[in-house]
Amino acid sequence: MAELNVVTAISDPEFESFVASTLFSQGWSVIFRAIDLTSLSIFLGSQVEPPSLLIYSTDIQGLEKDLPKEIEQLTQRSLGFAMSGDSEVRTGIYLRPTDPSDLISLVKSPSRTPLMRNSSRSPQQRRARIIGISGANHGDGVTTTAINLAYEIAALQKRVLLIDAHFQIPAIATQLGERNVNRDKPQQISAGLELFELTQENAAQMPQIISTASSEVDFILIDLAVMESNQMVLTDRRWGGSFINWALENIDDLWVLTSPQKVSALRLREITAAINNATLRARLTFILTQRHSGKKGDSQEENFLATVTPLRPHAVRVLPIDLRGVLAAQTTGTILISANPRGTLRRAIEALANELIA
């Protein structure tokens, strides 16, 4: 995201300090800190170019209810937060975030409220675990892992929503021989498993669809395709890229898969460098796919661990190479449990599913 010149108008010194430090961590500048509505109006009126963003709180002195229109017109965009104890949270006014990633999410995508953290759910309602599955490079096994993990979890009597967000070349429906999975709601494709495909037409509704599903299913798996390093720090304004950035700000877990291929290893290093400089809310898991057996596999795993362990991820996993099983599944348009149930990769994904629901 481009550098922002931000003006703040917040009375609470602790919240103002939280906002300023969070912005600073992203390389964004606070150019003026107003102490009341009068000083804010004078400063904005003196600027030749309107500031990129005004962040204000409803406790600022002189503000009776909504931000005056004449002040809104002096900024490119405004973002308001309710004061502590304010029971009336109006349109365009958000609950105060307590986590830096929540504030960054609102700054990047002001029209999209963070998915879970401000919603109140009764203890009886289920809360899905949302996992974004991405890869360092094409061919690292993202789609294969997402499909087979979804089926394995569903086979364990858990409800799963599988989302194909590979908007450039969607592959899940094609691989499984399914149709009509890109309309206005998820489609059931087997017992306990629903599938939905991201398109330009439904992209705007996707956050609400996921929010609704989160109280109805146990797991939401999102195939995020290849992860570009700049997605950790930038907001892509195209419909597909915007959803990917929204997902990164709202998922519970981000899995980054990589094979031992040289290009994959190079891109993994670029991704880990970007993650190291980003604010990431999700738990981070790295998975080495297509690991060979024997000494060759040991060397592959050693190089992989050397790259990812400095980030202290939530988990590090390994999936074995199984060319025969994967090829059989792709050729027949089915899943590993049907094409090669005793294959090494199928057993590894089955064990992973059991671990997730334990």
Task: Assign the CATH architecture of the largest domain.
Answer: 3-Layer(aba) Sandwich
Helix percent reads 25-40%
Number of helices: 13
CATH superfamily of the largest domain: P-loop containing nucleotide triphosphate hydrolases
Number of strands: 13
> Which percent range describes the beta-strand content?
15-25%
Order of helices and strands: EHEHEHEEHEHEHEEHEHEHEHEHHH
Low-confidence stretches: 111-124, 233-237
CATH C-level name of the largest domain: Alpha Beta
Report the sheet with the most strands, covering strand number, pairing sense and barrel closure: 8 strands, mixed
Spatially, the strands of the biggest sheet line up as: 8-9-7-10-6-11-12-13
How would the global form be characterised? elongated
Could you give the distance between the termini? Answer: 39 Å
Structural class: alpha/beta
For this entry, what is the oligomeric state of its chains? single chain
CATH topology of the largest domain: Rossmann fold
Mean pLDDT across every amino acid position = 84
